[in-house]
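Here is a typical sample entry:
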Amino acid sequence: MAKVELYTKGYCPYCKRAKALLTSKAIVFTEYSLDTQPELRDKMIERANGGYTVPQIFINDQHIGGCDDMMALEMNNKLDTLLAASN
């Protein structure tokens, strides 16, 4: 099973959408809430090569991007392959 990490904020509809997609696929993920852990913001930006919006999504330490990027992978039938790969 892939290691999936998301940086999120509670009010963010894109974060909720990304989490809903992963949950619908029964994917266990680690969520880093910038609401409760704002000190992680700089680490997120560094890991995301300057990406500062939420969510920022990582699969097996590979930066996927945001919700729209993950949805594009899903639409192109590429997300399940990434999620099936072990770290």
